[in-house]
Recover the amino acids of this structure.
């Protein structure tokens, strides 16, 4: 058993602070849970911990200095290690891909087995086998995803592919194109092309399930007097009646003008939330407001004061 | 079943409010049972590791999520490696395994140059 001062790399007259600092520095470097599979780090860490358990305790340190105990007498009991659990099946509990996952995705198999194994196995295996699934990402506009569209993709091998994005496609949805992945071997069927659709955000529309939400600017006179205004919807502009005496925050519904019906789901609605925009008020409005004595004066911030 | 009190008794220096905060941060994810939290051994070991990182290695709690995320990724990879290794031993004929090992050894030598 080495001299604990040597193990921690401190002089015999080191202060307790210096010993603690030396221990911390070595523990960060050699902690076995941070160095799984590194036996040398584990040995070093054990020695460092043992040395620290003597030197960090002034009482034990005194006994050691006086020769009453030796360095080996203070070896600690085996540590309960996180690593032992984390490396086993129980470690999936803290997996970055979720506790239910096996830790393996198709992509991993694709990467590892095809690059490591692909060629090697072909030679000694003449059974028909399924081609592998190819993964692609396709970004699309918000409106194409809502309404559906057809897009032409050029694959890395030069083939072109017409991809039909069905109406109501959501961000992250994967489209499977059967038989358009890697070729099968020895007469086996081809794999599939899996296309993950990434849907961009829209400047005005926001999707909420089958419904679409929209903040709709209206002028002061449209809000107060009401009237017909044109509202953009994913399917094109439609005319909508704003009731008189509407206010900012009023939500109006256009039935069936949200995401179109698809996959057995009925068409959603479009919810337009009014947002009164003053623009640049002119002299006449300023004059009017100066002389205006409202009959039902309101305090728009009453609620804020009552429930701060 | 291991409950909160047992965990606190087992890990010296661990305070209840620390453990509760780590659970609400999802750094430790015990099961929930009728009587409160139910910890498994891995949860206890992880709590001990977090305490050591914070108190002995002085990794403050702001930095801990980064460290934990990297650790979790490291252990994911190590589990994958172990699975892969098991699959190799069961599926791949021994002569191919030897060839593979020789190839990897050669490749890593080349990478060092």
């Amino acid at each position: 058993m080495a001299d604990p001062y040597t193990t921690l790399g401190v002089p015999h007259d080191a202060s307790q602070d210096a010993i603690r600092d030396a221990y911390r520095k070595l523990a960060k470097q050699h902690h076995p849970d941070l160095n799984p599979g590194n036996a040398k780090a584990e040995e070093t860490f054990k020695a460092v911990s043992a040395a620290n358990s003597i030197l960090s305790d002034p009482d034990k340190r005194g006994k050691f200095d006086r020769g009453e105990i030796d360095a080996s007498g203070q070896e600690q009991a085996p540590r309960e290690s996180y690593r032992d659990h984390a490396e086993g099946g129980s470690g999936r509990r803290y997996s970055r891909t979720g506790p239910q996952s096996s830790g393996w995705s198709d992509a991993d198999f694709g990467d590892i087995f095809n690059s490591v194994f692909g060629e090697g196995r072909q030679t000694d295996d003449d059974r028909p086998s399924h081609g592998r699934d190819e993964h692609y990402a396709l970004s699309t506009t918000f409106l194409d995803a809502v309404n559906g569209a057809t897009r032409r993709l050029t694959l890395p091998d030069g083939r072109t592919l017409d991809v039909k994005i069905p109406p109501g496609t959501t961000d992250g949805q994967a489209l499977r194109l059967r038989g358009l992945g890697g070729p099968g071997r020895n007469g086996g069927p081809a794999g599939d092309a899996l296309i993950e659709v990434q849907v961009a955000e829209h400047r005005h529309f926001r999707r909420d399930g089958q419904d679409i939400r929209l903040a709709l600017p209206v002028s002061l006179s449209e809000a107060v007097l009401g009237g017909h205004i044109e509202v953009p919807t994913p399917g094109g502009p439609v005319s909508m009646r704003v009731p008189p005496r509407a206010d900012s925050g009023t939500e109006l519904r256009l039935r069936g003008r949200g995401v179109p019906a698809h996959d057995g789901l009925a068409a959603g609605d479009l919810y337009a939330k009014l947002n009164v925009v003053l623009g640049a008020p002119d002299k006449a409005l300023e004059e009017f407001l100066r002389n205006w004595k409202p009959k039902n004066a309101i305090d728009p911030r009453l609620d804020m004061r009552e429930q701060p | 079943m291991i409950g909160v009190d047992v965990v606190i008794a087992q890990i010296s220096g661990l305070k209840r409010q620390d453990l509760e905060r780590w659970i609400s941060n999802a750094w430790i994810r015990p099961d929930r049972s009728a009587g409160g939290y139910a910890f498994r051994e891995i949860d206890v070991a992880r709590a001990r590791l977090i305490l050591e990182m914070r108190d002995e290695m002085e990794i403050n709690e702001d930095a801990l999520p980064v460290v934990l995320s990297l650790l979790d990724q490291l252990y994911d990879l190590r589990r994958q490696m172990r699975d892969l290794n098991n699959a190799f031993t069961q599926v791949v004929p021994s002569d191919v395994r030897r060839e593979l090992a020789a190839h990897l050894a050669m490749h890593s030598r080349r990478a060092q140059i």
Residues 62-113 of chain B form one domain. The mean pLDDT of chain B is 86. Chain B touches chain A through 30 residues (CB under 8 Å). The two ends of chain B are 54 Å apart (CA to CA).
